[in-house]
Amino acid sequence: KMIVVIRGLGVVLAAPNQRTLDFMEEYLLARVLTRRLIARRGHPSVLSSNDTRYLEEMESEQYRQSVAATVAPEEH
């Protein structure tokens, strides 16, 4: 698996199958969105342990983890 960034042109994703490519693309888009949102505020802020625990216990996070667990380790 490989991600190559070509400044000013785009990104090339290389993977053994479509499922892995989809995972890589989703992960890359999430990182880009996160960086853009952080840039709006000027700097990242650290969550408290209570806030982190709340997010980890959300139903959507538990679902995300269960879906991620079904992807074979070599596909991450």
Summarize the structure in words.
With 76 residues, the protein is of the alpha+beta class. Helices cover 58% and strands 13% of the residues. A two-stranded antiparallel ribbon has the order 1-2. A hairpin with a 3-residue loop joins strand 1 and strand 2. The termini are close together. The model has no long low-confidence stretch (mean pLDDT 84).
In short:
The chain is of the alpha+beta class and 76 residues long.
The helical percent reads: 55-70%
Q: How many beta-strand runs?
A: 2
Low-confidence spans: none
For the biggest sheet, the summary is:
2 strands, antiparallel
Give the averaged pLDDT, no decimals: 84
Beta-strand percent range: 5-15%
Order of helices and strands: EEHHH
Sheet with the most strands: spatial strand order: 1-2
| Count of DSSP H/I helices | 3
- Rg: 16 Å
Termini separation comes to 9 Å
Structural class: alpha+beta
Principal-axes geometry comes out as flat
